[in-house]
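name: query_chain
kind: protein
chains: 1
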Amino acid sequence: MKKLLIISNMFLLLVILGGCSKGEKGDTGTPGANGTNGSANVTAYAYTATPSNWTWNSSNYYWVATASNSAITSSVVSSGNVSLFVSWDNTYWSACPYEYFDGTTNEMYSYYYNVGNIFFTIGATNGSALTLPSEVYYKLVVIPSSARMTGSNNINWHDWSQVAPLITKTVELH
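structure:
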């Protein structure tokens, strides 16, 4: 009797589950707030350097200006990214390092950083001391490792046209 009960329950279960079928496929939903290639926590820090901000580094033959930035953490230094863009009119941006020929000298606009600091540099490729421009505009983009991993792996972080749409906020540095 017990065997018959088990067999009949199995048969009943087979009939119930065998009658199930998938429904029709629904429409594809719209992408989320950040879209397919969205990114999070990408901040641009704007900095304007005037001649009073620069110090001549006579051992390395370049001008240097320094700004503190708490967003450059040890995590960013080890696994994130820091990109710098330069402009002379605050409209058109070029990735650093950037080399510019002024008619007589090749000028190199570059940078380096460590935890908490960004160092902007201007030097001549021939080692001469340049006449500093009246203003140089910089946009420092700090990309934490988490932002690099949220659908933005195909971003060229040194191309302003690709980076600018990902910036979630801009902060003025002084």
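note: Residues 30 and 36 are 10 Å apart (CA to CA).
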